Amino acid sequence: MDALFPRIVAVLFSLSCWLAASPASAADPCLKLSAQAIHAPEVPARIAAAACEEHRLWYRPFIDADGRIGAMKAREAERTRLANGQPAWQRVVEYWRDSGLLWQAGAGECAYGDLPMPSCRAFVVDTPWSAAFLSWVMRRAAVPGFDGSASHLNYVRRAYREPFLSAYRVANPQAAQVGQGDLLCNVRGTARVYGFGELATLLSGNEPGLAMHCDVVVGIGVDANHERSAHLVGGNVFDSVTMRKLRLTQGGRFDALPMRLASDPECTPESPYACDLNRQDWSVLLQLRPAEELAALRPALPMVPSPSLQMPAGSPSRPQASVPADGRAVPAAPAGPQSQAAPRCCNHCDPEVGLPRCPAPSPPR
After folding, report:
1. pLDDT by 10s per residue, the chain, length 365
2. How many CB atoms sit inside 10 A of residue 293's CB?
């Protein structure tokens, strides 16, 4: 027993050290941001606060530094409500609508948001919304000089072609320092790999479309082992607003950023390394400009107010919306009382929509 006692003490000491180190190594930088950070004078803090606020609403799903993810509590198409009590798919509608992108996406039915139709929900499920989420974050954070888009490629290309007008500048993700508010972007798909060099060549041309995804850096941290890491938040990552962790070097650059190769196999039991969810075609880092340069850019666009119109699509009395150059929908004045449409109803009713069932047609006489 006397010989065993020192071993027991050593094991307990090691366990206590592990428990003490665990909270620091798993720290979420969003927890350090107060609710008032969305009004901070520093643009990076406002961006992080806006993204973190949404991450909390979606119950904080997380991809760790080894590319593993746990159970998802809420997805865009499920009936699970977010932390604020709102159905997840309706929150996605707000990302589209309040960022001014809903009309560009061709889903004007979703603009009449008090009683959204099932077709609106189908739009949410069928349409990638990560760029709409990021555009929403930028408007929420009042970022000067940022033009939102339903396609990540558009604001990546703008940062490349109009470096003095954009809130961001283009950098090689494998060589540049990372900071709060930066955007790390990858090219989606498995047909080929671009990397920074080939993407820059493409941005010089007139490629009409390229499937991309961008996450925003919400924090840089150091754990108990003095290892640096970046935490990033992105929308529509596994149908949710998800955080990922990526390792950094002591100099603040991505440490061996997991890069997808064209020769990579599918994720299978025989190829577990290909299952790393952080293993992507990371092609560009958009670095947020310094405060003095941001201050010289065009002021940020305001959030688009949500209209409260409830008239059915296709009604001749439905107010038509004008679409200004910045993409914001401004509904016209409602029609007079003599031309009001009949109340909306549904034949195949979704309980979440809340519409009454349409009355059965009268039989012919």
Report:
1. 455 544 544 444 444 444 444 444 458 999 999 888 999 999 999 999 999 999 999 999 999 999 999 889 999 988 789 999 999 999 999 999 999 998 877 777 787 655 557 888 888 889 999 999 999 999 999 999 999 999 999 999 999 999 899 999 999 999 999 999 999 999 997 678 999 999 988 888 877 778 999 999 999 998 878 889 999 999 999 999 999 999 999 999 999 999 998 888 888 999 988 899 999 999 999 999 999 999 999 999 888 765 543 333 333 333 333 333 333 333 333 333 333 333 444 433 444 334 455 455 454 44
2. 14
Q: Is residue 343 part of a domain?
A: no
Q: What are phi and psi of 189, to 5 degrees?
A: 100, 165
Identify whether 340 is part of a domain: no
Q: How many domains does the chain have?
A: 1
- Which domain, by its residues, includes 212? 30-294
Q: How far is CA 102 from CA 92, 107, 132, 329, in A?
A: 11, 6, 9, 8
Contacts 24+ apart (CB under 8 A), 75-81: 75/238, 75/239, 75/240, 76/124, 76/125, 76/129, 76/236, 76/239, 76/240, 77/121, 77/124, 77/125, 77/239, 79/352
What is this structure's pTM?
A: 0.77
Question: 246-255: buried (b, 16+ CB within 10 Å) or exposed (e) per residue?
Answer: bbbeeeebbb
CA pseudo-torsion sign 148, 149, 151, 156? negative
- Is 88 within 8 Å of 57 (Cβ atoms)? no
Question: 328 lies in a domain?
Answer: no
Q: In this structure, are residues 129 and 235 in contact, taking their beta carbons and an 8 Å threshold?
A: yes
Q: Does the residue 169 lie in any domain?
A: yes
